[in-house]
Amino acid sequence: MAFISTAFCSIKNLPRKLNAFLAEHYLRHYYDMRLDETAANIAYFLEPMRQDLKVVLEFPYLDKVYRDSYYTYFSTKHKDYPKDCIRLIFFEPAVTESDYGNQIAEGKLQDAFLGYCVVRPLKEKAIGRNLLSRRALRVQGFECCQHTETALVGGLKLTITGFSHSSQDGETISCAETTIWAMMEYFSHKYPEYRPTLPSHILAQLNPFHHSRMLPSNGLTIEQISFALKQFGFGTLTYSEEADGDQFKNLLHVYVESGIPLVSVIEDPKLHSGHAQIIIGRSEPNWEKLARVVKRAKKMVDFAEGIECLVFQDDNLPPYQLMQWDKPTAAYAKTDGFGGFKLSGFVVPLYRKVYLEAAKAQKFFQEAFHEIGDKKMANELIFRMYLASSRSFKAHVAAQSQMPVELRDTILAVSMPKFVWCAEFFDKDGVLNQEPCTLMLLDATEYSDYWKDSFIFAAHSSGAQIKIENPELIKLYDTTVLVTTQGLKGFKAYSSNLI
Amino acid sequence: MAKKIKIKVGFGEVEFVVMPKKEVRRMEDAIQKRVQPELNRLKRVRKKAEAQLGKVVLNA
């Protein structure tokens, strides 16, 4: 048994302190680890972070992901690999050495806790599992999928919110496995339907269907990623730029707007090489740009036009990279050889009971608008579409104090499935206030090709059509659609999918 | 003449106009007519997307 050793420093002094830590704790492996590469790895990871942070270094740290790789693979080699990791813990600058592990300062530590990063004892790809708060970054102005987890820090259980990230180790996990792992970290912490996974679990799911060895990892195909996610409980769908054509960009943004992390596939056809990333969010919408665009638009404009960048988790880069959707390798150095990579498709891990897919729902909404909405405005509108849980959507509606009370109460009283497709149509006046002039909802659990089967309600400036399948109503009036006389007013664009 | 009815919503009552069956049918048929030609194409697109991307090895 040994004591856990800790060290405290500013982020600027971290490389020097870490070198000393590596030399002290990995003495026997020190030469093999090639300190220069490890230091370069760490420096690259720290580059997008705020430079005023405080850091605690901790050794030994038992990391569940590295230990899984260690027992499945590294321990089976002749060479001796360490099984313990170093953990870096990040805090706001106000934290002092005496606060760390001090129960009296627990509140202060919780407020100042900005996440952790595991340093693996591998000569390449030292950055292991990490979860950082967006507050630790210099770049702000984006919204993304995030989950909350608890970390034991100096004997105190502190919570941290972010999206998990790890670099690939190149032997047990490539970009494909890292992507599946990070997806499951997010979903398992967020929803009780899913469980976290480890590299060996991913291999176990795929091994029976793989015709050759899976370790060392040679990557996975999109089919295999999709299959693994299906085994973990999702109803996956694949979209490709070639097949979806003009709609590809819009569909990509629909799922981003829905708060679903996506496996994005980037390819270089000349090199016959592919890479997987996760798209977890987007930059804050540029409503002013949308208002300018809609004024001179000759057709309905997609909300994607107001999004400058998407947020990527890439296992070759530090977390939370903001890049344009059609330049998904812009953050790479020119010498990395990723210049020719383009986004060719993405996989959506949908909740398995969402049967109505985005392209069909989009068609339903846009064509229904011509009948239900104001026809004169069809060319001067912004169209925004997203998937929402009816729980969150109703909570958002309930908070709309400026909405007509009867319409608000009616929407809250409508029986809805667990997930609904929502469409918001903004006219040129409403876009700056972020208030749609038309709102429509479809049942996401309905697969039927008949629009009327998935229709729930449509609210616009002069009223709202609502489908109520009440036997009494059908018996008396032979209809299921009621119209309210109160129009849609004071409804703020839904914003609970991304935080 | 549009029929007005009051329905209990939550703990209160809301007045609705009953949309005539004929009008509902017309609306539903008009939307369906616009949507229908696209639906089969969308199914083919999904299959094509799976086939195109499926075999790409991701390991860079």
**Low-confidence regions of chain A:** none
Give a count of the beta strands of chain A, DSSP E runs of length 2 or more.
22
* Shape, per Cα inertia axes of chain A: elongated
Number of separate domains of chain A: 3
Distance between the termini of chain B: 68 Å
Spans where pLDDT lies below 50 across 5 or more residues of chain B: none
The side-by-side strand order for the widest beta sheet of chain B comes to 1-2
- Distance separating the two termini of chain A: 43 Å
| Helical amount of chain A | 25-40%
Give the fraction of residues assigned to helices of chain B.
Answer: 55-70%
Strand content of chain B: 25-35%
Quaternary structure of the protein: heterodimer
Biggest sheet layout of chain B: 2 strands, antiparallel
Q: Quick check: average pLDDT of chain A?
A: 93
CA-based gyration radius of chain B = 23 Å
How would you describe the overall organization of this protein?
The complex is a heterodimer of chains A (499) and B (60). By secondary structure, chain A is α+β, with helices and mostly antiparallel strands. In chain A, 29% of the residues lie in helices and 27% in strands. Chain A has 3 domains: 158 residues, no CATH class; 109 residues, no CATH class; 127 residues, no CATH class. In chain A, strand 20 and strand 21 form a beta hairpin. In chain A, the strands form 4 sheets. In chain A, strands 6, 10, 11, 12, 14, 15 and 16 form a 7-stranded antiparallel sheet that branches. A 7-stranded mixed sheet of chain A has the order 13-17-18-19-20-21-22, sandwiched between helices. Chain B is an alpha+beta fold. Chain B has a domain of 34 residues. Helix content of chain B is 55%, strand content 27%. Chain B has 1 helix and 3 strands, in the order ββαβ. A two-stranded antiparallel sheet of chain B has the order 1-2. Chain B starts with a strand and ends with a strand. The model of chain B has no long low-confidence stretch (mean pLDDT 90). Chains A and B meet through helix 5, strand 9, helix 7, strand 10 and helix 8 of A and strand 1, strand 2, helix 1 and strand 3 of B. Strand 9 of chain A pairs antiparallel with strand 3 of chain B, so a sheet runs across the interface.
